[in-house]
Amino acid sequence: MSCETRYRRCSCQTCSRTWILHEQRDLAPERPDLVQQGMSLLTAWYDEMALTSRHDVDPMMTVLREGGPFHTRGMLPAYLARLRATGRASHAERLAARLICQ
Asked: Distance (Å, rounded) from C-alpha 100 to C-alpha 79?
């Protein structure tokens, strides 16, 4: 991929902002090796952080066990409606099926 396709510059004349275009396509089905490498890096980092922590309990795991961040609780119907209204109905259906089955 060339620089021209990887980066996009703002079209206005008053700024010089540049956006990096990424995460445009899910590579996981084609590159399970990259998924495994990423998961291995994440697991190694998590294990290292757990060993060096001064606390026995991981706050993130506590939040996840409690049902997620407080500000998002009860917001699933509105979020699903937003996904559907913005042309992402397939994502809404997949998310709803995954969360309702739990």
From this structure: 14
